[in-house]
């Protein structure tokens, strides 16, 4: 029931409540006509604390938006607010969540957006309060909801602190920690919206097409031009299913490799007859950073993919259960709870969950529009260059980090190729960021999970589209490794380039000796099974035989085939957008296109411009359009405000998250939407 309750909670932010009662009194928001719970804000002036609870039948954790509205409502009551704490109780009785959501979405209740004090921990000094909150991550303690700004946005950072207790010793506090109760409050709201609607399927043809999750269904098609597979160390082709007249598919290759009884690729045994699919030593503990033979295979693969000047040192690789796991561990090693992580906007929405939920980092968006050579005008098409970070934008985010946390930021996280923009940062932009980080002693983490999905290898000038941060940061004078130094790090995974998100294989590469051992030990909590490691190693080492009898590494052949299909699908979408006169960024990588739907937003209020529009107005106008696309036209895109974009009305379309028939249906629905909206305004 928790995800469904969270659907309700994301809508409660539309409420208003009386702010005129004297200090210290309970102030209850009016319940709707359908009997939705009442959110009570109880101010305890003697403790200078704020306790949030959902009353009536059951109590559930508030979302960041609820916290924002709650703090806003009480700002004029207690200007020196202290700890914000909340607790939950188990659900009792029935709860028709979708009826409640409909009532809330009717627009009867709205939220206040008054500003609140910049620090809610009882002191104007950010430094001391954050230090106190960062005291202990491991002690059983009360969760503290810290506030930070993203432009005008207030979102949550999760910390724990000794000696803080809830004002209500409820049963839920004995059954679950505050950290557990807070989990759903950190998830992006659009993910919850997606679960609240009927999605398209053959049995529900009127359902919404899911084009917001970054998955690649094109990987289910046969690998182009491949006719046979040879495992490492073998001379004969691997037996594949007989029904492959239409070509060899990735899943069939994996099935064959998983059932293989040939010696392990990294084994020094030439041949033996008693080899089994599951070797005896695989049942015992494995090296926490990954099997040596797998890390060697991954180092070779990444060197080829990223075109680094020298081989990666396999000892500097840590293999964990997915990109989010290795990224979280890397941040745990580089930053303390409450330290700032700067991320250029717009950014992958789930970064906030990955970096906040357990690492307790404080995300500071790097806004770029106001730091380019030419100012952005209202209604002007926003070119790709407006999204590039530079020294000016980084310096501004650095200063904001110091203001909000009391200390310098620790990490600059770059998504390269960029999600959600679908483009690569030019080499000069990446080099500027690397140089800036080294000068400021800020760690640069380059998330290159889409490095193998760059399907336009050259730009209009004939230069390389994608150049890895590892290649740009390498030093020729280094005697070992790439010579990255301690401030440049990489994360990668097989989830996107090979659509193997189910295998949970992520990689960290660092040449910082101070964090290598801690990374290896932390990885003990997110190791990959020995069987999965063996499967991935076999895949990385296998050879593909093409139709013309030429040979090449299977992963290279598979990536080229995938890139061709992504490019062809992208061309169809961008051609449709051009015919419809919809502005968009010309994508060169990833699985998505960044579309500009600003013309379909509700009009701005009189006297308001795009440049000075408040956050509430941005979110309200974009959400109205987002719900219209989803409910009335069956198109589920990712809204830009969930990714902290500076302007509303942009959407990410994941064009690979659909079969061919579903993709064609999506284009028809998109045409219907555009024509209908323009007919209404003509």
Main features:
4-stranded mixed β-sheet; 32% helix; 7-stranded mixed β-sheet; 19 helices; alpha/beta; disordered N terminus
Overall mean pLDDT:
77
Q: Low-confidence runs (pLDDT<50, min 5 residues)?
A: 1-168
Biggest β-sheet: strands ordered side by side in the sheet:
9-15-14-13-12-10-11
Number of helices: 19
Helix content: 25-40%
Structural class: alpha/beta
Strand tally is 21
Radius of gyration: 26 Å
Largest sheet: 7 strands, mixed
Q: What general form does the structure show?
A: globular
* Strand composition percent: 5-15%
Q: Termini distance?
A: 45 Å
Descriptive notes:
This protein is 32% helix and 14% strand. With 682 residues, the protein is an alpha/beta fold. Helix 10 crosses helix 15 (513-522). Residues 1-168 have low confidence and may be disordered.
Walk me through the topology:
Layout: H1 2-9, E1 27-28, E2 39-44, E3 49-54, H2 64-74, E4 84-86, H3 97-105, H4 126-133, E5 142-150, E6 153-161, H5 171-175, H6 178-186, H7 189-195, E7 209-210, E8 226-230, H8 250-258, H9 292-306, E9 317-320, H10 323-334, E10 340-344, H11 351-356, E11 362-366, H12 391-405, E12 411-415, H13 427-440, E13 443-447, H14 469-473, E14 488-493, E15 506-510, H15 513-522, H16 530-541, E16 543-546, E17 551-553, H17 554-579, E18 592-596, H18 615-632, E19 635-636, E20 638-639, E21 650-654, H19 660-681
Parallel strand pairs: 3-4, 7-19, 10-11, 10-12, 12-13, 13-14
Antiparallel strand pairs: 1-2, 2-3, 5-6, 8-16, 9-15, 14-15, 16-17, 18-21, 20-21
């Amino acid at each position: 029931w928790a995800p469904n309750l969270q659907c309700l909670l994301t809508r409660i932010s539309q409420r208003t409540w009386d702010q005129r009662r004297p200090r210290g009194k309970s102030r209850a928001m009016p319940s709707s006509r359908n009997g939705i719970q009442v959110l009570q804000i109880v101010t305890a002036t003697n403790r200078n604390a704020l306790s949030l609870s959902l009353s009536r039948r059951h109590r559930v954790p508030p979302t960041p938006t609820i916290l924002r509205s709650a703090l806003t409502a009480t700002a004029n009551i207690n200007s020196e607010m202290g700890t914000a704490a909340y607790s939950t109780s188990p659900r009792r009785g029935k709860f028709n969540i979708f009826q409640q959501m409909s009532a809330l979405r009717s627009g009867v209740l709205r939220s206040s957006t008054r500003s609140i004090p910049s620090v809610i921990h009882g002191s104007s000094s950010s430094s001391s309060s954050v230090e106190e909150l960062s005291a202990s991550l491991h002690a059983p303690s009360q969760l503290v909801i810290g506030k930070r700004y993203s432009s005008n946005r207030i979102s949550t950072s999760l910390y724990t602190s000794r000696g803080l207790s809830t004002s209500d010793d409820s049963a839920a506090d004995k059954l679950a920690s505050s950290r557990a109760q807070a989990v759903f409050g950190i998830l992006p709201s659009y993910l919850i919206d997606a679960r609240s609607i009927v999605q398209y399927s053959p049995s529900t043809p009127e359902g919404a097409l899911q084009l917001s999750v970054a998955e690649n269904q094109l990987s289910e098609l046969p690998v182009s031009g491949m006719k046979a597979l040879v495992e490492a160390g073998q001379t004969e082709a691997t037996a594949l299913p007989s029904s492959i007249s239409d070509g060899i598919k990735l899943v069939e290759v994996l099935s064959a490799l998983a059932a293989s009884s040939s010696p392990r690729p990294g084994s020094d045994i030439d041949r033996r007859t008693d080899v089994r699919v599951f070797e005896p030593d695989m049942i015992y503990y494995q090296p926490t950073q990954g099997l040596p033979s797998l890390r060697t295979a991954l180092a070779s693969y990444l060197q080829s993919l990223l075109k680094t000047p020298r081989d990666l040192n396999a000892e500097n690789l840590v293999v964990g259960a997915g990109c989010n796991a290795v990224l979280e561990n890397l941040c745990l090693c580089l930053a303390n709870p409450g330290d700032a992580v700067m991320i250029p906007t717009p950014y992958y929405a789930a970064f906030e969950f990955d970096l906040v939920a357990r690492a307790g980092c404080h995300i500071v968006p790097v806004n770029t529009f106001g730091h380019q050579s030419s100012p952005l005008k209202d209604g002007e098409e926003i070119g790709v260059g407006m999204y590039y970070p530079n020294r000016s934008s980084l310096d501004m985010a650095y200063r904001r980090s110091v203001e909000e946390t009391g200390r310098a930021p620790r990490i600059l996280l770059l998504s390269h190729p960029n999600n959600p923009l679908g483009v690569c940062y030019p080499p000069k932009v990446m080099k500027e960021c690397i140089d800036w980080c080294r000068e400021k002693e800020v760690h640069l983490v380059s998330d290159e999970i889409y490095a193998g999905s760059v399907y336009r290898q050259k730009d209009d000038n004939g230069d390389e589209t994608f150049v890895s941060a590892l290649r740009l940061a390498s030093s020729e004078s280094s005697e070992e490794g790439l010579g990255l130094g301690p401030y440049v790090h990489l994360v990668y995974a097989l989830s996107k380039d090979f659509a193997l998100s189910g295998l949970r294989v992520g990689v960290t590469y660092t040449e910082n000796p101070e964090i290598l051992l801690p990374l290896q030990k932390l990885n003990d909590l997110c190791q990959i099974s020995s069987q999965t490691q063996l499967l991935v190693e076999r895949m990385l080492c296998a050879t593909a035989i093409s139709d013309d009898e030429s040979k090449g590494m299977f992963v290279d052949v598979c990536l080229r085939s995938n890139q061709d299909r992504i490019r062809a699908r992208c061309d169809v979408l961008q051609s449709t957008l051009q015919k419809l006169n919809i502005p968009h960024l010309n994508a060169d990588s990833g699985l998505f296109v960044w579309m500009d739907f600003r013309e379909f937003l509700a009009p701005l209020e009189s006297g308001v411009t795009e440049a000075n529009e408040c956050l509430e107005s941005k979110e309200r106008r974009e959400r109205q359009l987002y719900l219209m696309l989803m409910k009335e036209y069956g198109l589920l895109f990712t809204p830009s405000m969930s990714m902290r974009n500076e302007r509303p009305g942009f959407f990410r379309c994941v064009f690979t998250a659909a079969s061919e028939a579903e993709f064609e249906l999506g284009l028809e629905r998109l045409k219907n939407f555009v024509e209908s909206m323009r007919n209404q305004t003509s």
